[in-house]
Amino acid sequence: MKKTLQYLKEKKRNNEKISVLTSYDFLTTQILEEANIDMIILGDSVGTNALGYQNETEVTLDDMIHHTKAVCRAKKNVFLVVDLPYKTYKTPKEAVENAKKLIDIGADAVKFEGIQENILYELKKNELNVMCHIGLNPQHDQERMNQGKIAKGKLFSEATELLKGAKLLEKAGADLIILEKIPGKISKIITENINMPTIGIGAGKHCDGQVLIIYDLLGMNKQNFKHSPAYINIRKIIKDTINKYKFEIDEGLFPNETQTNIIKDSEYDLIRDWCSKNKFVL
Question: Looking at the whole model, is its pTM more than 0.90?
Answer without folding.
Answer: yes
